[in-house]
Amino acid sequence: MTETRYAEDVRLADLVARHDVGHLEQWLEQRPAYEIADEISRADQVTAGVCFRLLPKDRAVEVFGELDGNEQQKILSAVRDQSFRDIVEGMDPDDRARLLGEAPANFTQRVLAGLSARERELTAPLLGYDAGSVGRYMTPEMVRLKEQSTVGEALERVRREGAEAETVNTLPVTDAGRRLIGVVLLRDLVLADPQDPLTGLVDPAHPRAHAADTAESAARLMQEANLLDLPVVDSEDRIVGLLTIDDALEVIEAADTEDIARQSAASPLDGHYMSVGVVRVARSRVVWLLLLIIAATLTAKVLQAFEGELEEVTALAIFIPLLVGTGGNVGAQAATGAVRAIAVGEVRPGDVIRVVWRECRVGFLLGSMLGAVGLLFAWVMVDDSGIAVTVALTLVVVCAWAAVIGGAMPLFARKVGIDPAVISAPLVTTFVDATGLIIYFLIARAVLGL
Amino acid sequence: MTETRYAEDVRLADLVARHDVGHLEQWLEQRPAYEIADEISRADQVTAGVCFRLLPKDRAVEVFGELDGNEQQKILSAVRDQSFRDIVEGMDPDDRARLLGEAPANFTQRVLAGLSARERELTAPLLGYDAGSVGRYMTPEMVRLKEQSTVGEALERVRREGAEAETVNTLPVTDAGRRLIGVVLLRDLVLADPQDPLTGLVDPAHPRAHAADTAESAARLMQEANLLDLPVVDSEDRIVGLLTIDDALEVIEAADTEDIARQSAASPLDGHYMSVGVVRVARSRVVWLLLLIIAATLTAKVLQAFEGELEEVTALAIFIPLLVGTGGNVGAQAATGAVRAIAVGEVRPGDVIRVVWRECRVGFLLGSMLGAVGLLFAWVMVDDSGIAVTVALTLVVVCAWAAVIGGAMPLFARKVGIDPAVISAPLVTTFVDATGLIIYFLIARAVLGL
């Protein structure tokens, strides 16, 4: 018997070393919990960690319960360990996903407890939380209250455990199965009568986030609902941590900085503005510039197509930068406004028609005013009423067109699942440039009879 | 005697009705505090309020002390009153400024207490807090602790007064003269031994803001220092309120929305994106568009100056939108990055030289890559090596130039006291357009020997 066990132990370590996730899973499926617990106790730290993380959630809870304190500790520290991280990184994405399913709440909290913010960020992916998810930003260090306590007992618990917690302003209240019932605010606890039952203070409607939700949506929810802390639960509503407002603020600031960078068709810098190297800055900007210059060749194609008209009336060329520039500005304004409105939640994808109709009227209004200025100016400059009328009419049409495109593109992007912030002002501008030139020469043909 | 008094009372009400601030001040200067208190007691509410607000700060404290509870209440409610607001609005800006000097902390807090956020916003200007200052956003409803209490006494006070307070997470600690010594966090109070003196828990280095500071800088300070509440003091370091994180967040969101709108050369909308009317949207965008179209006439002037070259080589016109568009994109990226870096505090005005040198190298790098693409593309399109080289060289120079302008303009704006967010991408683009065209034709002359 000992022989077989030993062989199996060796085989497990072997399978882990070979990244043979399939066989490991098969092996784990066939064994009862106590036997897995036994094998895990005998295995080295990394093998134990990998096996444990491969267990389905409910079995993992069971196995964890079978282990004694030392062995639990072994698995906990395995997940924080560099060699475990190396194993995970060496796996195929598919296997990695199987290995890193959502971990049980109890386990998650104990793995993350006592780690610094930086260590938590490194460890959270190993617990199954994707980049940008709430799980990456939450703190597990909170004081959890039991629903059947009195206010006095709860306060006693805060006094006992509070020094270790990252925050005690918000206190999650759970049932016997760690499921979140609601939260109590420290303030209410302090103001209440110690003899009262805790349940009277619990707010069961307090918003919560799932660990797999995006951190940005959770942070914006906190901002809207004026929350200092947001309780984070797993898919079974078991509490795993709290997202505190200072972390939420960092998430929002980073998201805004990213949106703003995207608006100018650059990627956000992953560092301090003054210290990031020249090459990295250039790299953050070059991809879009290359795409845009390729798109801009469209403008050259359009002009080449109208070269006959250009040769006939060279004066038409004079107004090209003014027309495309103005169209671009109107489009950029509309796009920037729409992207921000989407980011702060004022526009929903279903609003496309309304936005288009509104922007069309706004653009027409703007175009009429700018057209009047353009008419006057072109007349003074080239002393040719035909060209002046062409410029003015083009401004009216291009402004309406640019506003519609600028307003609609971010909404369409959102609808097809692209981040609307990708619809940058330069992208809109480049698109409006090429189409605006076609409008210009078609109007010129009609007005000047070319 | 009663006769004279009555006459003076009438005269005061008269002076107030005539907005004769000069005579009122003169009258108040000559009287001792108890006499002013007496006159204020006899006067109608609005007259009393105006007289009181005209007193220098230290005399106001003295007079307030002389008044009995009812009379104090009269002045407090006068300042919240519509007719007082009307009086203030009817005054010359100079007189208004004299009337609305900073009010004593004690008085401020009592005027603002019990008002809704909306009412506070309406009333704060009458206490001398300018638009956009911390005084407009702070809450006066806090629990103030005395420095010589014990932890137990402090907790008792929180229990007694906490229900009325907007927040008790942060508790300002003051000396006998209401001067802020530091703050205690509710959390520390709960965790400490009730017998301990409070002073051990006070953080005297906790950041504070002055009521006249801009709300945005105070809010960003809270974000950086991870504070839930920021104590707000008057110019004599007396506590007047707390800025809570939820209000700070609104300030930051509004500032960011404004910056983003400005980046596209629009004013921020003062309403929900979906509900603001078409004319108001157009108005928020038209001012900059008009300025920019006037600036864009420069591009037409430049092209007119080079009309001879254009007539000789029409093919040069074909690349104009591509060149100015790419230059504009590079400039917009640099400007957007610099504006954001200034907003989040990563760049200081003294960094101009470093930013320029860095952007110059970034722009040169970008220009080299884009120039290579441009060379290839122009060659294929017009089959003329001279024009292709002209386009490529122009891209290199224009990109470096645009990056420098985009990076430097926000910093210069900041240096001369203009909001750097005004240096919008469209503004940079328009500037780069005109100068880029000059660069283009100068290079064309040299390369093509025109």
UniProtKB/TrEMBL annotation, chains A, B:
| Keywords tagged on the record | CBS domain, Cell membrane, Magnesium, Membrane, Metal-binding, Transmembrane, Transmembrane helix, Transport
Q: Which residues form the CBS domain?
A: 138-201, 202-260
TM helices/strands, residue ranges: 286-306, 318-342, 362-381, 387-409, 421-443
Q: Which Pfam families match?
A: CBS, MgtE, MgtE_N
Query: What topology does the record note for this protein and the membrane?
Result: Multi-pass membrane protein
Q: Which CDD domains match?
A: CBS_pair_Mg_transporter (cd04606)
Q: SUPFAM superfamilies annotated for this entry?
A: CBS-domain pair, MgtE membrane domain-like, MgtE N-terminal domain-like
Q: Where in the cell is it found?
A: Cell membrane; Membrane
Question: What Gene3D superfamilies is this protein classified in?
Answer: CBS-domain, MgtE N-terminal domain-like, SLC41 divalent cation transporters, integral membrane domain
Q: Which PANTHER family match?
A: MAGNESIUM TRANSPORTER MGTE (PTHR41394:SF8)
Subunit notes for this chain?
Homodimer.
What this chain does, per the entry, is described as:
Acts as a magnesium transporter.
- Entry similarity comment: Belongs to the SLC41A transporter family.
- Name used for this protein in its record: Magnesium transporter MgtE
Originating organism: Streptomyces monticola
The lineage, from the top, is: Bacteria, Bacillati, Actinomycetota, Actinomycetes, Kitasatosporales
